[in-house]
Amino acid sequence: MATSLILSRRDLDFLLHEWLDVESLTKRSRFTEHSRETFDAVLDLAEQIATDHFAPHNRTADENEPHMVDGKAVLIPEVSKALKVFTDAGLIAGSFDEEYGGMQLPHTVGQAVFAWFKAANVGTSAYPFLTMGNARLLLAHGSQEQIDTFVRPELEGRWFGTMALSEPQAGSSLADITTRAVPQDDGTYRLTGNKMWISGGDHELTENIVHLVLAKIPGGPPGVKGISLFIVPKFLVNDDGSLGERNDVVLAGLNHKMGYRGTTNTLLNFGEGVHTPGGRAGAVGYLVGEQHRGLTYMFHMMNEARIGVGVGATVLGYTGYLHALEYARTRTQGRPPAGKDPASPMVPIIEHTDVRRMLLAAKSYVEGGMALGLYCARLVDEEQTAETQEERSRAHLLLDMLTPIAKAWPSQWGLAANDLAIQVHGGYGYTRDYPVEQFYRDNRLNPIHEGTQGVQSLDLLGRKVVMQGGAGLALLGETIAATTARAAGSEWAGFAADLDAAVARMGAVTATLWGTGEPDLALANSHVYLEAAGHIVVAWLWLEQALACEGAASDFHEGKRQAARYFWRWELPRVNHRFGLLESLDRTVLDTPSHVL
Amino acid sequence: MATSLILSRRDLDFLLHEWLDVESLTKRSRFTEHSRETFDAVLDLAEQIATDHFAPHNRTADENEPHMVDGKAVLIPEVSKALKVFTDAGLIAGSFDEEYGGMQLPHTVGQAVFAWFKAANVGTSAYPFLTMGNARLLLAHGSQEQIDTFVRPELEGRWFGTMALSEPQAGSSLADITTRAVPQDDGTYRLTGNKMWISGGDHELTENIVHLVLAKIPGGPPGVKGISLFIVPKFLVNDDGSLGERNDVVLAGLNHKMGYRGTTNTLLNFGEGVHTPGGRAGAVGYLVGEQHRGLTYMFHMMNEARIGVGVGATVLGYTGYLHALEYARTRTQGRPPAGKDPASPMVPIIEHTDVRRMLLAAKSYVEGGMALGLYCARLVDEEQTAETQEERSRAHLLLDMLTPIAKAWPSQWGLAANDLAIQVHGGYGYTRDYPVEQFYRDNRLNPIHEGTQGVQSLDLLGRKVVMQGGAGLALLGETIAATTARAAGSEWAGFAADLDAAVARMGAVTATLWGTGEPDLALANSHVYLEAAGHIVVAWLWLEQALACEGAASDFHEGKRQAARYFWRWELPRVNHRFGLLESLDRTVLDTPSHVL
């Protein structure tokens, strides 16, 4: 295959093999059927299907967004065709158990595989992405009957799934959802309410849709403690697995978005009496796990979803970077400062230093983000398959700590890479004849959904760094210190020293903030904290990558080293201003009364 | 009128009167007919027309972009209607001489007036914006006959104008344009070539279009020294001013953009033989001024255009901010950290500190940008009407120095305000049901056209700070020092001290960079220099605004002070990292070979 503009297989191979050594996972019992060859084969397959079936209709789907006809969401036919190829290849079950028809791939490889589809066409790939998260939640918390009934068809690609949390009046504030689930004598529930922003909430791609719905059972505790989780299928399922009656879940509207248009984003009405399954009112729902524990279950899925969203944000930035790189190599314009003779030929714009600045910055963001996403995926593998309980617990703790960063950092900097990709293209990048403006628009969703940047910052500073007496933060510090120790005596010692200093300062800042005894003050500038922490983590992963290049002299490795130098010299120092602000316990924002704005 | 979401009249009044004291201009002979009352009246008129005729079709124009039918660009009818109201009100000639039907308003007021239209509907307002720049250039460099023939109809709103610089193979690199202009025996020229990215290049809004076209006369010097400027009207003009033959300027295509869709953006073919005026080949053109001086003339217009683009970028950010503020005051969601009881009512999201952070940041960007734009407009008034030659020269020099910043800073930070406005809206901001995503898309053009950010950075560091032995930089430093001196002993003394330090460091950094003797090295990180310089300038203008609030205790003034504090504590320190990088003469980007990317 020619060098792809979707993703860099060379970089994935570097990250998976030269750095994360995923082949070593094949020694673990879960992955003994696998080898470098099987990993390569599935990555080849992903690239091929993404290239042949996903990328070609990315712009078409943007220009022809889903619309409602007779209460149904109508999509361009390319979406269905692409997803059939995807599911026929078994990719939807890639990292699931063989028992459920899966390939039992390591998550690390699974993330790399799925990254091709997100980068090629984020709108189309959202349907299986949501389904995989849905299935994973049910495998963890559903009954065997629920798994057999709903998960199997999902992993066969016959049904797709959603997660239905938000409501029109309650976006980030799940405490305020009002969808009600009333218990019935037969153990089922009847749901009534409205859900907003439900991606994949309706379509004709599959014969059934499995909604996972948050709702409150009357009489339960107030707020988030009274939230339960229900399976609400679009069509009820007969005992033999065939489809039964239409459930009372109705498409009430489609949201029209800036980007990400290929994915239906819906307002769904539950139990409004359009259908009356069994002749009675309310949408039929099946409780998952125990009552009132719905949010805990959902966050199990949300955390994986957040890492997945982070990878999505990274790869949209990544494909933008690759397109900009290709453009900058081929588009000629102007001459360097030292050679202004108009009789001399124009040079490719990559020869202009400021264009290389943009490309190098974008490279550092997207390859840094990819390292972050795959590192987190590796932690998922560790938490599930590491040999000792201690290793599994450590992986779990570190992953918990990194999750808000893995979601938020790429959402900010992958998007920044998309912005740079437009800028590299100049006027052409602003036209719809080139794909980079769509990548930007598609990616602009990522800082919003699955918890906004602000929500992630509160999660990091308000929960993750203080959980277990600060154990997560300490573990992150130890993990980074192990890397910087390896840099001693190398050309990267200066980078390591700067990183050590930044980590130490982060610890001190954290203590200062929480030492105030005032949560409002400690959390007032949480977004600044998130940004600083994110840059430290990605700087660490760039140091990791630089060290993994030891002794390798190819252009590829020199590019890695140059991006690592860039991140060290240009990006890591950004944390100083942020920490200075945090150390000062700046009250500017906190003390701004809303009426003076 | 209710409080507008287009712009803040209160802020404009503050900037124009409490700060810039534009009323004092009425003592000058050019403005004796004016008074606070006439300024107020025209601002009232602008707000009313912008509100009633421009804003209502902003989304409609975005959704129904111009398309070609039978070689003509077809626009929605609202554009023509709005522009008729605008030109009938005499606003196109607002700051032009009474001799040409103008109101002879100060430029400062004229910028504030026109800001309403850009903020309400940047696509529609581009047509008169381009026409005003075109007319101003011809008034400065055209012959009296050219002025009578072309400028008068423009200022009556009967004809519109364009500026046609770029070509498909030559965007930023004007040295490489290939459009040819061959002299004819009658003193006219015949032009052949293709021009790309020509905004307003074709439409049916006016009966004629006056193109100002850069082209090369065969046998002239190579590169930019051989560029001449021509008037090429769409229709030739008879001696009595009536329209004659169709000239050979043909709409070859429309560009389809990410935003700014209401403005036709065209590929124009000149002299391809579609029409043959006078039975001969080539588009008829009239030389403006002297041969080979075209770029100098064009830059006269470009500099004003750049300030205007900066104001446009600011006000798109500004209207986004106002919409976000309104949304944040009315949308309820969640509870503050100290009051998580789900039984308590939800609060307006403006009560969440992180939402106020976004609003305060956006406020500091857009009000800072507006101060910058109006300050530059005030310098135009000074350079044209100040009493002494010395004052006029100083104003000219300072304006020259500030122009790249006035263009680039709002293009970056006005856009950042638009990004924040989307984020404040959450999922709703990502939908096309709310206007903030369009404001973002519209504004994304501004860092590209009229000289990209990279081009501005080379202009600032490569030309402006070194011109006249560094006189421009010195004058900027003196001007800022005069402000900081006024802050002595006030609560703003700390801000002033930080600003003085930053200015001193900028001087030292500039000397370090040019002390290398290597232009490639000095200019390698010019974009970083531009960003630092921009933040210093805007910090200075925030200090100016804070000082102008002295003794005023209203919510409005407290908001100004709070935004000034924000810019001081949160934004100004960003320059330290940038200067550190520049001082180190960092070669990371310069030394990155293109083949390792």
Descriptors:
oxidoreductase (chains A, B); alpha+beta; 18 helices; homodimer; 53% helix; 597 residues; Acyl-CoA_Oxase/DH_mid-dom_sf (chains A, B); Butyryl-CoA dehydrogenase (chains A, B); eight-stranded mixed sheet; two-stranded antiparallel sheet; FAD (chains A, B)
Care to describe what's here?
2 copies of one chain form a homodimer. Chain A is built from 18 helices and 12 strands. With 597 residues, the first copy, chain A, is an alpha+beta fold. In chain A, the strands form 3 sheets. In chain A, strands 3, 4, 5, 6, 7, 10, 11 and 12 form an 8-stranded mixed β-sheet that branches. In chain A, strands 1-2 form a two-stranded antiparallel sheet. In chain A, a hairpin with a 5-residue loop joins strand 8 and strand 9 (243-246). In chain A, helix 13 runs antiparallel to helix 14 (493-515) and helix 16 packs antiparallel against helix 17 (555-571). The longest helix of chain A has 37 residues, at 294-330. The radius of gyration of chain A is 24 Å and the shape is globular. Chain A starts with 8 loop residues before the first helix and ends in a 14-residue tail after the last helix. The model of chain A has no long low-confidence stretch (mean pLDDT 96). Chains A and B meet through helix 8, helix 9, helix 11, helix 12 and helix 15 of A and helix 8, helix 9, helix 11, helix 12 and helix 15 of B.
